[in-house]
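Dear U.,

For the methods section draft, I wanted the exact inputs and outputs in one place so we can describe them consistently. I've listed the two proteins in the order they'll appear in the manuscript figures. Please don't edit the token lines directly; just add comments below if something needs changing.

First protein:
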Amino acid sequence: QVQLVESGGGLVQPGGSLRLSCAASGFTFSSSAMSWYRQAPGKERELVAIITTLSGSTNYADSVKGRFTISRDNAKNTVYLQMNSLKPEDTALYYCYTKKWGIGYWGQGTQVTVSS
């Protein structure tokens, strides 16, 4: 049974930092690409960052390039999203995502609120 459990969200002031974590289980984590998505109120869910498997190459939405960093620890079956220089427009529910056997799996999400 695939499970993705996010943590690390919270309230932070503009310019601050947060690190999100996603603990994965129920599948071979090291051979799975992992992604972070976010959804702000009234907006569609959007891809924030993705990290591949063997090479660990990454890709980011233009809106977060240079501020966010996705990484993974295959020994801990965990993917991270380091978020720096946060802006109010980064406020959203952040989700972890993977696709296995043709099926997409989502975590429950963790709320990030950037406000003074």
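Second protein (the one for the lower panel):
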Amino acid sequence: QVQLQESGPGLVKSSQTLSLTCTVSGASVTATNYAWAWIRQAPGKGLEWVGEISTRGITYYSPSLKSRTTIARDTSKNQFTLQLSSVSPEDTAVYYCNGGDEYTYWGQGHQVTVSS
């Protein structure tokens, strides 16, 4: 059974960098044809794809967030990470990690609040 678990601070100050980690169990972050993504949902809004990293370690980012986003993976810990720089209150959201060969697997979500 594949499980994903987000972790990181729940409160970040404006202009700082938001850093989250997704720990994967039951599958390898290097599994063939798997991709691992970050998705967020701001209050009262729909799901927003932030970006993802492929099996080969290639990253793809939302155009609107690309300049501030870095997604990486740590194969020794079977984790992938999100860094979002220069945050503002508009980045307040529940952040989900997601992945699999058909993006089947989801973490439970992690609330991040950006204070002004």
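Candidate sentences for the figure legend, describing the second protein: The first strand starts at residue 3 and ends at 7. The radius of gyration is 13 Å.

Thanks,
Y.
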